[in-house]
Specification:
Distance between the termini: 22 Å
Helix content: 25-40%
Order of helices and strands: HHEHEHEHEHEEHEHHEHHHEHHHEEHH
Shape: globular
Largest sheet: 11 strands, mixed
Structural class: alpha/beta
Radius of gyration: 21 Å
Oligomer: single chain
Length: 486
């Protein structure tokens, strides 16, 4: 584990914004810092697929000029960021991390709404970040390079939005935007030691994203603090008629309740997840410490039982994966099967074989799990669990192969997803915040899930925890962690 430091590239986005607004930091200087770090370290980390230096510099110079002329747009103005390469940005190819697409198919037809909103906020787009193929997880051979954990490159940087977690943790941008179907923002946030939010389904427009799991997909920020996360969500949230599943609901001031203690809040630990058989002892200990910290901040913390939570894993796979399988059966899978990564195509082929009757029953059963989660959230202001039940594993140990013992395969599937899927299936907001380190110096994390559209309370809990723990102030020393890695 590193010691806290205040180097420019590791300052939070909020701290950088204050320096930019006051004239103490140039957006061009900040961008150059990040571009240098990408050039220095990304041959190993492989967080990025496309970096457009010229385009990014043009944006940074424009931001600098606007701010100098008194036209400061707000807390993201002049901050460099990256997006998971699942979102369209004019001028940058949308590779989707795959060899399936031909070059002409990678050309975006328009900007994603999320890109437009960040541009309006004055943020500076550096480029596109690495991901599991088509953003669906299960990739074994990455066409654009194996993503690696900046704390230990032999270990996983987690699921689909992997590059977005790496780049934020490694000080290669101020923040990132990932996409979360079943944990693909929260998993990379946990494994890389940053903050990651899955917003309420419908809070953020998905127009311009390449989506397939329509019942679960949502975009969310990865940042170095909860305060940063609230500022980014402020910029990207809100109704968009171009996305029929985007909810026309008022966007509150997400930062308004930050800085308060937790007096008056009732939180509940989900005991089947936090204290389950699969939960690693070091994760258990981190949870114990996190609960104590939350109580010291004034929260009442109890336990709650969600006995149906474990069924979220097969139900999400039978429903969301079937949505994905249906999309790819109509697009690419029949005529380009061999061009898919073996891990991706195995998952897609299996999902394509799910009968409609099974899909229908799974969708009906999802309602029961969601009802149990929402019933708990009527009694408690938020639910807490680990974000992952184990520390980040070796890359080889996380590759999902189906050629082993059936019980082992099922156990691995549930272990990797049990923390994430109950809240994905319920479509509620869930936040991952750093909560310590394993004995091997790998990040551990706390997950905070809230009521639909109540991201403000989730942020309040996460921010209070961060102010009392400061785990987010630790960053990987890349010259040490990447030393000798080819």
């Amino acid at each position: 584990m590193s010691t806290p430091n205040n180097e420019l590239h590791y300052l939070t986005a909020t701290e950088q914004a204050r320096l930019i607004e006051s004239g103490q930091l140039s957006p061009v200087e900040l961008l150059e810092t990040y571009l240098d770090r990408i050039e220095c370290y990304d041959d190993t980390l492989r967080a990025w697929i496309t970096v457009d230096r010229e385009f990014a510099m043009k944006q940074a110079r424009q931001a600098e000029q606007e701010i100098a002329q008194g036209h400061y747009r707000g807390p993201l103005h002049g901050l460099p960021y990256g997006v998971k390469d699942q979102m369209h940005a004019l001028g940058l190819p949308t590779t989707l991390g795959t060899k399936v697409l031909d070059p002409e198919e990678m050309q975006p037809p328009h900007d994603a709404t999320i890109i437009t909103r960040l541009r309006d906020a004055g943020a500076v787009l550096i480029g596109k970040q690495n991901l599991h193929e088509f953003g669906k997880g299960g990739t074994i051979e990455f066409p654009y390079g194996q993503p690696r954990n900046p704390w230990n490159p032999a270990h996983t940087a987690s699921s689909s939005s992997t590059g977005s977690g790496i780049a934020t943790a490694a000080g290669q941008c101020s923040f990132s935007i990932g996409e979360d179907t079943g944990g693909s923002v929260r998993g990379p946030a946990s494994c890389n030691g940053v903050v990651g939010l899955r917003p309420t389904h419908g809070r953020v427009s998905r127009h311009g994203g390449v989506m397939a799991a329509y019942t679960s997909d949502t975009f969310g920020p990865l940042t170095r603090s909860v305060e940063d996360c609230a500022a980014v969500l402020q910029a990207i949230a809100g109704h968009d008629p171009k996305d029929p599943l985007c909810i026309p609901r008022e966007v509150p001031d997400f930062s308004a309740r930050l800085g308060r203690d937790l007096k008056g809040l009732k939180l509940a630990v989900v005991k089947e997840i936090a204290w389950g058989e699969a939960t690693h002892p070091e994760v258990r200990e981190a949870m114990v410490q996190a609960i104590q910290t939350l109580r010291e901040q004034g929260a009442v913390v109890e336990e709650v039982s969600l006995p149906l939570a474990k069924w979220a894993v097969p139900l999400q796979l039978l429903s969301a994966d079937a949505d994905v399988g249906a999309y790819f059966l109509a697009n690419y899978l029949r005529d380009r099967y061999q061009r898919f990564d073996v891990g991706t195509r195995t998952r897609l082929a299996a999902a394509s074989l799910i009968p409609a009757s099974v899909y229908n029953r799974a969708m009906r059963a999802r309602v029961l799990v969601r009802r149990q989660v929402l019933d708990a959230l009527r009694r408690y202001d938020a639910l807490i669990t680990p974000t992952n039940v184990t520390p980040p594993k070796l890359i080889e140990a996380t590759q999902e192969r189906v050629d082993g013992d059936q019980q082992d395969v099922v156990a691995r599937l549930i272990e990797r997803r049990i923390c994430h899927y109950p809240f994905s299936l319920s479509n509620v907001p869930a936040l991952s915040v750093p909560a310590g380190f394993s004995s091997e110096g790998l990040p551990l994390a706390l997950q905070i899930a809230g009521r639909p559209f109540d991201e403000a309370t989730v942020f309040r809990v996460g921010h209070a925890f961060q102010q009392a723990s400061a785990w987010h102030r630790h960053h990987p020393a890349l010259d040490t962690t990447l030393k000798g890695v080819a």
